[in-house]
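Possible regression after last week's pipeline update?

I re-ran a chain I had predicted before the update to compare outputs. Posting the input and the new output here so someone can diff against the archived version. Not blocking, just want to make sure nothing changed silently.
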Amino acid sequence: MEWGMVNRLAQLIQPDGHALFLPIDHGYFQGPTRKLEEPGKTIAPLLPYADALFVTRGVLRSSVPPDNSKPVILRVSGGTSVVGGDLANEGITTSMEEAIRLNASAVGTSVFVGSDYEKESLLNLAKLVDDGERYGIPVMAVTAVGKELEKREARYLALACRIAAELGARVVKTYWCEDFERVTGGCPVPVVMAGGPQVDTELEVFEFIHDGIQKGSIGVNLGRNIWQSDFPVAMIKAIRAIVHQNATPKEAQKIYDSEKGSKAKK
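New output (post-update):
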């Protein structure tokens, strides 16, 4: 592996082999998402606890201070929206030269395995990998499911992750699911978790993150579970403890409750 590729991956994946990525790219298809209306204000208190930021070039330039020391994973796919015909009909929106200009540590694109646009999204990934390997920039594949949330099960996610790895993705972002070891066990590159099932409590979030880490994930790429929380700093600190300190869900809950209590007293 080339020096540049190794160096960029080392910026993202910490010496303990784990990572906490903070995605704020949701607006590229959702518009002004709740609590992400002003991205700069949302992320300011969270950045110290994130290992990298997953973001579009527009929000990076407009809302992230250039002296921010956190590595950037640049979202480079898009072209669809929640009011359009099919979220899977994405294209590549940002060139590798632009990623270099923005000093990105990696780029990310979605793949929609099983959709009407499966071939197009997978060829987008393959072309991006060609460009990334040329310049030493890793590609993170995002196993998107569009509006078909029932696809969040082990057999489908294992298939999508393996295909992404086969096409050259250096990291794969996917959803947590039951039997998650089937997903990580069949994927020869690092896997980070996006969201999991719809849950009602912070403890349930901590439980699926802990389960995924125990079953082979290197970490998380969680956004809404963090910045839509009533206590986002408490939430990211608790999740970071699971990812980097092997905290149990109950230990993470104690951290969350303690941080929440401190915030409430101020």
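Follow-up from reviewer: compared with the archived run. The radius of gyration is 17 Å. Marking as no regression found.
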